[in-house]
Amino acid sequence: MARILDGKILSEKIKNNLQIEIKELKKKNIFPGLAVVLVGDDPASKIYVGSKEKACRELGIHSKVFRLGKDAAEKEILELLESLNADKEIHGILVQLPLPKHIDEKKIIEAIDPKKDVDCFHPENVGRLMVGNGQIFPCTPAGVMEILKEYNIEIAGKDAVVVGKSNIVGKPMAAMLLNAGATVTVCHSKTTNLKEKILGAEILVSAAGKPGLITVDMVKPGVVVIDVGINRNAEGRLTGDVDFEKVSRVAGAITPVPGGVGPMTIAMLMKNTVVAATRIYE
Ligand code: NAP
Questions:
Q1: When you count CB atoms within 10 A of the terminal residue's CB, does the N or C end of the chain come out lower?
Q2: What's the total number of domains in the chain?
């Protein structure tokens, strides 16, 4: 049976440390602040924003949520970002994705001051990450790296496979593993012989958003499996991309869903907000 990589416990530990750090910052008159922009009424986005607000409250981070209607004009969002960029009480800004179709997502992301870009989606921060000079890291892949570190999982020299090549998870994940010395294969929907590629993995990160994609015949014994996928099965229960029940019998270590990468993502967002607040006064 695989070792369970518990992201819930680790995220609590990280948040407890951040709480102490925030108290110290407040003694120096630094009050970390996060602005979240939510456009439209996507139910999943509303839940994510609610979780982010709750985490801020628990840690003592000042948070402001800006809720705009689904028909909000691009100009309105750009003006809001301009005012948040200039707001001294706000150190982190995130725009909850996805945005409604009529909004140019790239334009919105590029309008965020890179110093306040706590999601690390701005091309300047993505570029820094690629050249190994990142100061802030995208929350989900950063959460995965923290899990690997906490459980002393060696990355350098390992064969890693990342399934998914989105700008939010797959691509930065591959870059971070590569920067840490892994040999990385990135798979996506057009990859041929997916099973053969995954069988070569010593570390497997699945971020496809496809329940049941990774089956036991696709993994080699001892593999470290990180399941980033968050899906709902037919009964409405949360499930990852991996057939946890069977794969956990052959893997060396595995993250559960829920309780794996999910809670780490929010903890990393809180960490990035504290880093951004600290850096502004450097
Ligand atoms: P996304 O933008 O939809 O990207 C999915 C990626 O998976 C794409 O690159 C796609 O390939 C690839 N893919 C889809 N089906 C595949 C298949 N059958 N075989 C191989 N590759 C396949 O999603 P995302 O935003 O990266 O998120 C991925 C998953 O992670 C979702 O379930 C999401 O809910 C979850 N997520 C979790 C967290 C967390 O905190 N745990 C955070 C963010 C996202 P193409 O590029 O070729 O289309």
A1: C
A2: 2
